[in-house]
């Protein structure tokens, strides 16, 4: 792993864990603070599944899936062209996956706290690691669409 990917991973992990610690300490689990009425609040919850309650209370499956995802990323990131976007993408993915993995291993659940409501629809509550993972997937999708996932296209920047 190059230093740029490592740095982004560590920064992502630190921001994720720091925000989770601060929110769970000052707001508390099941605590809620409305920031924009009927739209955005900080609502600290224990999430025992993945997005949209997938694999709820299947801790072992989620831990194994995270480890497998990290192994796959470690294996395939060297096939991608080395550039700022791809470094950012892999760093965000690795840091985000580790952030939620740490919660699952040490707490048995993930601390989520960003809560959005759109009219009557309550979007699933999420955290910084989830944002990093989604952004990382989005950036890697762009790289794949641009053909930057092939060894012959590798260049150093």
Please characterize this protein's 3D structure:
With 157 residues, this protein is an alpha+beta fold. It has one domain (3-146). Helices cover 54% and strands 15% of the residues. It has a four-stranded antiparallel sheet. A hairpin with a 3-residue loop joins strand 1 (32-36) and strand 2. The two termini are 15 Å apart. Mean pLDDT is 93; it is low at 153-157.
Q: Any descriptors?
A:
157 residues; alpha+beta; four-stranded antiparallel sheet; 4 helices; 15% strand; globular
List the helices and strands in order. Answer: HEEHHEEH
Instruction: Label the structural class.
Output: alpha+beta
Helix count from the secondary structure assignment: 4
Distance between the termini: 15 Å
The fraction of residues assigned to DSSP E strands is 15-25%
Shape: globular
Largest sheet: 4 strands, antiparallel
Low-confidence stretches: 153-157
Q: How are the strands ordered across the major sheet?
A: 1-2-3-4
- Proportion of residues in helical segments: 40-55%
Q: Total strand count, please?
A: 4
